[in-house]
Task: inverse folding
């Protein structure tokens, strides 16, 4: 009897798991990959793609169908849509299909939650927060506005904020005023790489404002400028405001009893096998998981473990404890020439971070997600 594995999410984690299962060529296993975006999006390069002319769309957007069509058509289905509800007892998932807005209920033997996260600001291009067409439009519009602006404010000094400010300043630091707002007294949340990243930004003429928590933004009807109001009451008028403040896990479809957190930051609670707690056949990886933190390398390792544990379950074997990266790696590109990072608590030279990440933003890894060699 055919077993059905439903994978929700067609990005780093979900596509990785799909490849891992499909490459085994099980005759009695069908994979259904559900993705709201018809394309795989290498969003790690979005921070540089907002500089016109540097990155081609086709280098960071790849049709998911091209990744799956190498497998027998009977072994998979690609469904473009959004999961809206899940019943882990009935083993069903409701999906709103993008093409006609109809509802389809999928029944599964194993379910993978890999729906990632989105930016609070829906027009931000840092995540695939909508359809392929919408994300592409957001990216192009941001690039157009960045080129025209003389004054740019980047809200949020986490990894994305530092990288966005660095890319903008590397290209226009001598001709545009670029301000990075940090709610804390250090960038990167006070990580050990904070001072190194701040120094690299200053070399590119980025002005960093500390203790600058964004309260709200509005458009001045007379000047057309965006007014960024800070929690301390200060107002900064700018031609372009780019928010990189936080992400929202895409977990609204998951029953509340399986989630932890508060407000709109609710993540899935998993056990040491990356199995959703209190279930036997629901697994999770990536930004939807409650631990240890969101990160590309962590998602990669989690996807490997989820795929292996589903394979074990299909064979009637017990799961293995999920393994993370051997050491916590953090790398932050600062423009196209420098960077800041660490391996564990050991700081890495700027040149090493540039070589490993900043030089290409790892775009060379994209083909592996399409031809399946990543898994």
Result:
């Amino acid at each position: 009897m055919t077993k059905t594995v439903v994978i929700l999410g067609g990005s780093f984690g979900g596509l990785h798991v799909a490849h891992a299962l499909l490459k085994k060529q099980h005759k009695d296993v069908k994979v259904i990959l559900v993705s709201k975006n018809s394309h795989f999006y290498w969003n790690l390069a979005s921070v540089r793609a907002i500089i016109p002319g540097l990155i081609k769309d086709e280098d960071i957007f790849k049709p998911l169908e091209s990744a799956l069509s190498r497998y027998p058509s009977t072994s998979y289905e690609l469904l473009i849509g959004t999961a809206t509800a899940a019943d882990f007892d009935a083993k069903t998932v409701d999906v709103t299909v993008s093409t006609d807005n109809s509802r389809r209920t999928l029944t599964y033997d194993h379910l993978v939650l890999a729906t990632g996260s989105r930016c609070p600001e829906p027009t931000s291009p840092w995540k695939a927060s909508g359809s392929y067409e919408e994300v592409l439009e957001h990216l192009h519009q941001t690039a157009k506005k960045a080129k025209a602006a003389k004054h740019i404010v980047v809200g949020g000094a986490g990894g994305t904020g530092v990288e966005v400010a660095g890319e903008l300043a590397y290209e226009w630091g001598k001709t545009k005023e670029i301000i990075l707002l940090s709610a804390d007294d250090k960038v990167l949340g006070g990580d050990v790489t904070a001072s190194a990243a701040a120094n690299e930004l200053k070399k590119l003429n980025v002005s960093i404002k500390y203790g600058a928590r964004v309260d709200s933004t509005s458009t001045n009807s007379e000047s057309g400028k965006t007014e960024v109001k800070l929690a301390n009451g200060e107002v900064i008028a700018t031609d372009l405001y780019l928010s990189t403040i936080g992400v929202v896990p895409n977990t609204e479809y998951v029953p509340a009893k399986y989630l932890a957190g508060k407000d709109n930051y609710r993540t899935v609670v998993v056990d040491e096998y990356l199995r959703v707690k209190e279930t036997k056949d629901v697994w999770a990886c990536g930004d939807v998981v409650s631990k240890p933190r969101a990160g590309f390398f962590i998602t990669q390792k989690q996807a490997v473990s989820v795929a292996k544990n589903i394979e074990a379950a299909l064979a009637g074997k017990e799961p293995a404890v999920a393994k993370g990266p051997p050491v916590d790696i953090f790398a932050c590109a600062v423009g196209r020439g420098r960077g800041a990072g660490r391996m564990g608590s050991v700081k890495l030279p700027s040149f090493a971070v540039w070589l490993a990440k900043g030089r290409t933003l790892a775009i060379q890894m994209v083909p592996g997600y399409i031809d399946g060699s990543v898994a």
